[in-house]
Design a protein that fits this description.
Layout (H helix, E strand, L loop, with lengths): L4 H10 L8 H12 L5 H18 L6 H15 L3 E2 L12 H7 L1 E2 L1 H14 L4 E4 L6 E4 L7 E3 L5 E3 L1 H12 L12 E2 L1 H18 L3 H14 L4 H13 L3 H14 L6 H13 L1
Parallel strand pairs: 1-2
Antiparallel strand pairs: 3-4, 3-7, 5-6
Helix pairs in contact: 1-2, 3-4, 3-6, 8-9, 9-10, 10-11, 11-12
């Protein structure tokens, strides 16, 4: 595959079984493509160092809540990590290397820092893809507590999550258990990439947007809506043969798609160009 070296490494990482994907390594490969001089190992070492420093401060009794308190004190009080509320849609908030450097980010990338450190402390945690927000929780079936890495590691119980969701949507929400789904590694990376895609499309940065969609398709080759979006982006970037291939494949796979007529019209427009 004729990819940039960072993308080749990303591709190799996401070819593994889901539980074997190293999330922080894959995230750093995403950042490496944006920052060609990035030293992936240096940032992995930074996470190792953070975890080692917390390890020295841990109490003898390593109860989950005490571990969370120790991580919170170190990350948020000592190092000053915080949610970027002033410039939430800055693309740098979505790149793990920049989050580590600047000590600020969005919920999913701050969660990634937290997860990486917790894993190094033998305290496994998992991502939770609440609608409109991202949380983490200990990977212990008997513990129904959640951590909001964007809000200084605030510990939430189920009722708090319900209240947070109602606050996000500014209306009462009828609660459903599926509002707190555990997110696997591929889903985690897909959510990071989808955030970046939306940011670049908003900025009309089509070159970067298509590079994000290309990586989404490496991660999820079956994602036909991403294939369609890549075809449309290729069209706008005047990469017409690639656009035609993607859009024809999309129609072949979903001939009854709601947007089938619009896609057919776009293909006809390309034939006339």
């Amino acid at each position: 595959m004729d990819f940039p070296i960072a993308r080749r490494y990303f591709y190799q990482e996401v070819q593994k079984d889901d539980h074997q994907i190293n999330l922080e390594r894959a995230a750093l490969y995403l950042a490496w493509e944006e920052y060609p001089h990035l030293d992936v190992e240096a940032y992995l070492n930074a996470l190792d160092t953070m975890a080692a420093e917390i390890q020295e401060r841990l109490p003898i009794e390593r109860y989950p809540l005490r571990l969370i308190q120790a991580i919170n004190r170190y990350l948020y009080e000592d190092l000053g990590f915080h949610g970027n509320t002033e410039n939430y849609y800055d693309p740098r908030n979505s790149f793990l290397s920049e989050v580590i450097e600047r000590r600020t980010g969005i919920p999913i990338t701050l969660s990634l820092v937290y997860l990486a450190i917790a894993q190094r402390l033998d305290f496994p945690m998992v991502g939770v893809g609440m609608p409109g927000h991202f949380l983490i929780r200990p990977a212990l079936p008997e513990m129904e507590i959640f951590v909001d890495a964007f809000q200084q590691g605030e510990v939430l119980f189920l009722q708090d999550c319900q209240a947070r969701l109602a606050q996000l949507y500014a209306q009462p929400i009828e609660w459903r258990p599926e509002y707190l789904p555990t997110v696997n590694n591929r889903q985690f990376l897909a959510r990071m990439l989808t955030n970046l895609k939306a940011i670049y499309l908003n900025q009309r940065d089509l070159r970067r947007a298509v590079a994000i969609v290309e990586r989404l398709l490496l991660l999820m080759p079956e994602a036909l809506l991403e294939l369609r979006d890549r075809g449309i982006l290729y069209y706008h970037l005047n990469r017409l043969s690639e656009a035609r291939q993607d859009l024809e494949t999309y129609l072949r796979q979903i001939p009854e798609a709601e947007d089938a007529i619009a896609v057919q019209q776009l293909l006809q427009q390309m034939q006339q160009d």
